């Protein structure tokens, strides 16, 4: 069977198109440094890329939540540090009032404790991003107010917990509800001390014991908060490691062999030149003649 020049030209043109397409594909891979451009390039690889990108997206959300939790807890710990410091000062001041030598100074001692209490109230009403640290899920008003120099808890519910997800199965409570601190009796014990001293009387043993108990309870709350904060830090480290591993896997799937592609491109360009010459030699007039 005789093969005509037209058939040969058509075959060469088909080869020419294939080489051009392959060349364009390789050049795109080099330009984007990505091996997979479409599903047909690598079905299994594409599915893996889709899954990895989904996992990476989730990890970014978890990391953002963990960062927000950590920031919120740091602010909370700072407020707790101040509350505990002021409580320590109140304990020291109240103990000195037991000495009869200071009986004439009860008014000034009461004022000192009032100043400490005012600082505690400020810490109880501290905010993070417009939210009360100890307000639970309520942000309608201050957690504690001062009325006649005594601490009065809000009538609103400040027992709500705010949770954020840091992994598929882990949710972390990021706040300390104000009710936990109020329920230690710390504010009541301070109020009682102030009232007793302003009446010209020394603190009773029961009042000092109540203050010590409330102080210990607040310290316990701070300790638990610190434990939770350490847990968040550990989870954050794990998430960062997972993110790095996923990024590496994604790069390995998508990355190109630049050296090999450069060689392939050179070979394809050379083949194009050969095919052009072959097409030109199959007939006296070819498509290439009309393009010049």
What would CATH call the architecture of the largest domain? Up-down Bundle
Helical coverage, percent range: 55-70%
SS content category: mainly alpha
The helix tally amounts to: 8
- Determine the CATH topology of the largest domain: f41 fragment of flagellin, N-terminal domain
**Radius of gyration computed on alpha carbons:** 37 Å
Q: What's the CATH H-level superfamily name of the largest domain?
A: f41 fragment of flagellin, N-terminal domain
Number of domains: 2
Mean pLDDT level: 82
H/E series = HHHEEEEEEHHHHH
Task: Enumerate the spans where pLDDT stays under 50 for 5 or more consecutive residues.
Answer: none
**CATH class identity of the largest domain:** Mainly Alpha
Strand content: 5-15%
Q: Quick one: overall form? A: rod-shaped
**Distance from first to last alpha carbon:** 34 Å
| Major sheet description | 2 strands, antiparallel
Strand order of the largest sheet: 1-2
β-strand number = 6
Question: Tags for this entry?
Answer:
two-stranded antiparallel sheet; rod-shaped; mainly alpha; 68% helix; 8 helices
């Amino acid at each position: 069977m005789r093969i005509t020049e037209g058939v040969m030209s058509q075959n060469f043109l088909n080869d020419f198109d294939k080489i051009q397409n392959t060349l364009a594909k390789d050049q795109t891979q080099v330009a984007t440094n990505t091996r997979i451009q479409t599903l047909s390039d690598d079905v299994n690889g594409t599915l893996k890329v889709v899954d990895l990108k989904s996992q990476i997206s989730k990890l970014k959300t978890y990391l953002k939540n963990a960062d927000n939790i950590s920031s919120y807890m740091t602010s909370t710990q700072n407020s707790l540090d101040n509350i505990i410091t002021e409580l320590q000062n109140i304990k020291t001041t109240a103990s000195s009032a037991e000495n009869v030598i200071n009986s004439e100074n009860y008014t000034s001692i009461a004022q000192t404790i009032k100043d400490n209490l005012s600082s505690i109230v400020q810490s109880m009403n501290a905010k993070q991003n417009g939210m009360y640290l100890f307000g639970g899920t309520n942000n309608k008003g201050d957690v504690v107010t001062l009325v006649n120099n005594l601490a009065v808890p809000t009538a609103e519910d400040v027992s709500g917990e705010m949770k954020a997800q840091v992994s598929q199965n882990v949710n972390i409570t990021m706040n300390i509800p104000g009710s936990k601190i109020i329920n230690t009796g710390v504010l009541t014990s301070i109020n009682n001390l102030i009232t007793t001293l302003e009446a010209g009387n020394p603190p009773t043993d029961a009042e000092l014991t109540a203050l010590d108990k409330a102080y210990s309870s607040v310290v316990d709350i701070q300790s638990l908060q610190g434990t939770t904060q350490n847990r968040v830090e550990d989870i954050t480290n794990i998430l960062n490691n997972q993110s790095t591993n996923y990024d590496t896997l994604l790069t390995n799937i998508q990355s190109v062999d630049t050296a090999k592609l450069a060689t392939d491109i050179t070979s394809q360009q050379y083949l194009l030149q050969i095919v052009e010459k072959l097409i030109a030699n199959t007939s006296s007039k070819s498509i290439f003649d009309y393009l010049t």
